[in-house]
Amino acid sequence: DTGVSQNPRHKITKRGQNVTFRCDPISEHNRLYWYRQTLGQGPEFLTYFQNEAQLEKSRLLSDRFSAERPKGSFSTLEIQRTEQGDSAMYLCASSPTGEGVNTEAFFGQGTRLTVV
Amino acid sequence: AQSVTQLGSHVSVSEGALVLLRCNYSSSVPPYLFWYVQYPNQGLQLLLKYTSAATLVKGINGFEAEFKKSETSFHLTKPSAHMSDAAEYFCAVSDYFSGTYKYIFGTGTRLKVLA
User: Fold this and answer.
1) CA A16 to chain CA centroid, nearest Å
2) B79-89 pLDDT, tens per residue?
3) CB A43 to CB B102 under 8 A?
4) A84 three-state secondary structure
5) Number of CB pairs, chain A paired with chain B, less than 8 A apart
6) Which of residues 17-36 of B touch A (CB under 8 A)?
7) Residue B53: closest CA among chain A residues belongs to which residue?
8) Are the C-beta atoms of B23 and B75 separated by less than 8 Å?
9) Which of B73, B110, B112, B113 has the smallest CB count inside 10 Å?
10) What is the pLDDT of residues A3-28, one digit of tens each?
11) Is B34 helix (H, G, I), strand (E, B) or coil?
């Protein structure tokens, strides 16, 4: 399968702990996005990478959140000092450049975080 | 700012009946619109996209959507619902104006198909 891969699929953590999620985009996709989805809501944009450069961050991304894409391939999203409000599905998506506005984003299956 | 509004957080239809899921957009520039489907505990799968080439867009699984500029709408339809269509559906607009092409999603419509 050459789709977007996210690990782990599920994570349960105690409040105050740090967690890290990984996203492997489709090979050769330059654009990578992180979204957060809470129950009953649509996905909300968190951050965007073009290759290894983080070009946009949402105000939703507090200073406890950090994302990296060190070599322009896989990406990690870390949440420090987790809070119960961080419980959500974290979705990663990737898309190729060069196709302009018609670019379709391909989504991974998400990482469901539960903070207890 | 661009946005989409999905009317009806829950829609129920009988198997074999017409499916109509509503999406209205707000955009100061020509919009690029998408419909995604999400099954429980899964990611999002693209159903179809509007790329300005044609106002009636056909997608996978028998779904289609019509772009109506005068009504600022992009409603999703399917002539005959199947049990397997039960899922959550999201309308999204591409924020290409910012240069990131990130999607701005609606709040979703959960479709229930009754036997």
Assistant:
1) 20
2) 999 999 999 99
3) no
4) helix
5) 69
6) 32, 34, 36
7) A102
8) yes
9) B112
10) 999 999 999 999 999 999 999 999 98
11) strand
